[in-house]
Amino acid sequence: MNNQYDGTENGLLKRNCAMREYSVGEILRERGVSRRDFLKFCSAMTAAMALPVTFAPKVAQALDEVKRPPLVWLEFQDCAGDTEALLRSANPTVGEIVLDILSVDYHETIMAAAGHQAEAALEKTITDYRGKYLCVVEGSIPMRDGGVYGCVGGKSHLDRARQVCGGALATIAVGTCASFGGIPAAVPNPTGAVGVKEAVPGATVINLPGCPVNADNLTATVVHYLVFGKIPALDGHGRPLFAYGKRIHDNCERRPHFDAGQYVEQWGDDGHRKGFCLYRMGCKGPATFHNCPTQRYNDKTSWPVGSGHGCAGCSEPAFWDTMGPLYKRLPNVPGFGIEHTADKIGIGLAAGAATAFAVHGALNAIRRDKEPSDENREG
Fold first, then answer.
1. DSSP string of 103-150?
2. What average pLDDT does the segment 237-257 reach?
3. Is the pTM of this model over 0.85?
4. Closest CA to 342 of 250, 280, 252, 268
């Protein structure tokens, strides 16, 4: 396979188009990835999608056959934290993600082209592959005053989102800002910031909230589509159930200390050093749905609670306004009775936890699990 290009943006686009004719597995082998490493990647993605280990061979077979779709990555009102998370991904590395799995045709932060060349690359992809490309959005979209608070290439973020997301096969909103508006949308929300789904109601949107997104969840979402030909099952907030189907509290390594009534009372105290529960220090894990305890960050080495800091609830809508103050315990979680069980461990814990599952189960009942082509899109 001839993957050479002449260094120009047009040459890179030609190279990407040529490589799309090959399967993900073929491209990985061309780049020297061993069959063993490829199968390890498939196993990791199977685990990330919360599938039984027996699905790993099926994932490998599908990726051996499926062709890569083009992908464009838009940045709006953001801190670039999700891009930073992507750049620090390890298994697979960002190079493998960008060049082999996702075929990123446009990403303002990491692409070589700039100005008119960059805009031409975007226009070419969304025109030539309309209805066939994937879009990743990072950052919230300002709606107030016609969207004047954010512009790129002479177009407002709002107009660009409607153009690109409206013509995409599916849009993946990475990070809490793109999913729900995030910190820019916190009171008083001067720019009228919203998430992608609110700005482009007709688009098929998969939300991957978190500050930042876990790059493994992003890769697993794309792999799910490549393997099964449809978006993953979503909860009531548009989040994949494989990544957001359980509370932080359910899989937390400090959960046994919660059940035993062992809490950190002050930062640096003996309980803190022993890894006791951080609920009384403001941990929002009992009210937050995410797979942080199992997927973790930095090549799965750690996560906030594991490093001694409570969960901030950043994967929940309006967390900045509803989960604060950051270092004060949750006032009361409806259906969980957390205030009672934090002080008096006993039968109330099991009853409260059961109610929490029932509440989340009701949300999951309206989840979507359908082909992206079935969704109405905005042009």
1. -EEEETTT-S--HHHHHHHHHHHHHHTTTT-EEEEESBEE-GGGGTT-
2. 95
3. no
4. 280
